[in-house]
Amino acid sequence: MSNLLLLEDDISLIDGLHYSLKKNGFYVDIARTVEEAEKQLAQIEKYDLLILDVTLPDGTGFEVCENVRKHNKQIPIIFLTASDEEVNIIRGLDCGGDDYVTKPFKLGELCSRIRALLRRAGVTPQDKASVLKCGDISIDFLSCRVILNNKILELTNAEYRLLCLLVRNANRIVSRDIILNDLWDGTGNFVDDNTLSVYIRRLREKVETDASHPQRLITIRGFGYQWKEV
């Protein structure tokens, strides 16, 4: 069973989620405040994934996520949010979140996203022994480190996975459907185009000299995206 940490202060939601997640094969620890979560995350190695509510009595899930990423922890993180406004999506992605679920949500949707992120969190033995180089970019799969023009890029988990997919297929067009299928649920049903567009925009700001005139991460209108070797 995968071990999850659920940070949520709504008692009725906690009870239902705890029961349902256990029935779906997950072991769940509960934290109701940021302080409780930080104490449990002192042993973060015991967890496989974090589910963080955004609004809490003593802070936000964003703060917890930022603290985890400061210590270079690559554990998958899902946000539970009462709003699907773009500003909240961007805030969650910027601080290192991998996905978000808008309340109210269906349990099947949440479980599918959890399983998708857990699958993506695994690194194959071949990946662990390899470094991918493409022009002026180098990806070290063992350390999850990306170097561009001799500088280390600070990427969120999702940005890192998206970049790996594009660079592996350098100079080829990767469709939006393929990206959604590879990064999230197998059918891509639970991620909209708006979310992917946010990822692309934020990634461009980190890999391009001028994000408004991209030279590496190119949009192929009507098809998808292409990483051009520079």
From TrEMBL:
Residues 129-229 bind DNA. Keywords: DNA-binding, Phosphoprotein, Transcription, Transcription regulation. GO terms for cellular component: cytosol; protein-DNA complex. One of its GO terms (biological process) is regulation of DNA-templated transcription. Residues 3-118 form the Response regulatory domain. SUPFAM superfamilies: CheY-like. It comes from the Bacteria. Residues 129-229 form the OmpR/PhoB-type domain. GO terms for molecular function: phosphorelay response regulator activity; transcription cis-regulatory region binding. Coiled coil: none annotated. Pfam families: Response_reg, Trans_reg_C. Transmembrane segments: none annotated. CDD domains: trans_reg_C (cd00383). The modification 4-aspartylphosphate is found at D53. May play the central regulatory role in sporulation. It may be an element of the effector pathway responsible for the activation of sporulation genes in response to nutritional stress. Spo0A may act in concert with spo0H (a sigma factor) to control the expression of some genes that are critical to the sporulation process. This is Stage 0 sporulation protein A homolog. The lineage of its organism: Bacteria, Bacillati, Bacillota, Clostridia, Lachnospirales.
